[in-house]
Every structure is written in C-alpha cells, then in structure tokens.
C-alpha cells in the first residue's frame, strides 16, 4: 500500500469542503500526482482504501506551509529528519505541484516562478538527448535520475546522506527512484566515489551539488578533473550553479568556468535558463 501523504494544499481543499457542507470532494492522496474522491464524515475524511484522517489532524496539517505529512493508522507525522552524516536538517516541503526538500532551511530546487519538477526538466534538457550511461552526482529526491532514466541506458546516482533517501522513500514523486531497474544507487561521497569509475564511463553527467558554502569540495578543480576523466569523448556535463544574474551566482560561475576549463573541458557555455553551465569534452 502506498503512503498517504498530505500537505496544506490538500487540507485546505478538505476543510473548505467541510465548511461548505459537501459530502465528498476530489483531492490528491499523494501530493498532486493523482486525484481520488473522498467522503467527508463527522469523524473525518475517508479515502477509497478506507484510510481515515481526522479533522483535528487536518487542522494541524493546515497550519504548516513548509512540511508534508504521512498519514499512518490515524496519526500524522511530519516528513523530516536530522542527518547524523551531514548534520543537516531535512524535510519535505510542499508546492502546488511536486514537493522539494528543505536542506538546512534551503530549498534544493527552484520554486520562485517555477516548480521543482519543471526545474529538473530544465536541467535535463541541457543534456538532451540523454543517452548511454548517465551519472547523477547528487540524488536528493531522485527527480533527475528518474527523468534521465526515461531515455538513458542506465543511470548511476550518488547520495552522501542516507537521511536524504529516507525523505525520498516517503515522497510519492520519488517512487521510481527505488522501482526503476535502470537506476543504480550508491550511498557515499561523490568526491571519493568517482575515483572508482573507469575512464570515459559516462556519456552525460549532471552535477547538481549543494550550494558552494555547504559543499565547496564539489566545486574544486581536482573534482572537475575526475569528472572530465570519466566522461566520454564528446560527452557533456551540466553543472547547476544558481541564478547566474545574481552577484553571488556570477562570482561562483566565474570560478566554475575557469576550473572546468583548467580540468580539460573544451568549451563551457552559460545556460541561464537552467541556472548553470554546460561543459563539453
């Protein structure tokens, strides 16, 4: 049985329907992936599989705009954790479409003027066609690996933090990360893990690291040299940076472009629509 996961977007629909005296209403049981019709009773909301969530629990969900909740046996639990590996707090944050993950209070996807899955598709598009072996250097919620696997031969995705995968397992949008046989997960530090790959192993690399202040080693020239080594001739690497028009983004970009060039990449192009740069081998 899949998880029943709700946020304030769903609670508002249900609480409004109750105030309006409706006997039933359409709502999503999985953070906007699908819709079902639910019954509104005195006790609470009854889903088609007979799971029930009480009105007090829905009121509690409605008070939190930055957290998603899993409903289990009549109780609700916020999808959040504290990582002993990175010492970062992580939680699943809802949006009007797919959720993102808050890492130390910072959304790991763009949400201003867009939404997390559209943000992912922008990154994927820079590397189209997504063919051969693909390396995703930071799993997160797995959206990149999931989309890359639609056309790639195989996707290897690396995540340093088991807490991140703990959050992903409760996210309905991340199911394919664990179900798709074309996706191979590695739990470890990508800085070290790349050394084990043979030369020219990958046709495409999508490098979407945490911000520079949280993971400076993933912006280092030595790491870029390893990425260059494992990328095939005429392969491409997309490096997410952030808003290239911002002062901080411009500063990080200049350093990234210089170090990628020094690592051997023949051409590095700005891709402002995807908040990053594209490097060619």
Tell me what you see in this structure.
- By secondary structure, the protein is α+β, with helices and mostly antiparallel strands.
- The chain has two domains: 4-77, no CATH class; 108-280, Vaccinia Virus protein VP39 (Rossmann fold, 3-Layer(aba) Sandwich).
- The protein has nine helices and 18 strands.
- The N and C termini lie far apart (45 Å).
- The relative contact order is 0.10.
Give a summary of the structure in a few sentences.
With 281 residues, the chain is of the alpha+beta class.
**Average pLDDT value?**
94
Specify the structural class: alpha+beta
What's the number of helices? 9
Computed over alpha carbons, the radius of gyration is 21 Å
| Record field, number of beta strands | 18
* End-to-end gap: 45 Å
Q: Tell me the fraction of residues in β-strands, as a range.
A: 25-35%
Number of domains: 2
Order of helical and strand elements: EHEEEEHEEEEEEHEHEHHEHEHEHEE
Helical content stands at 25-40%
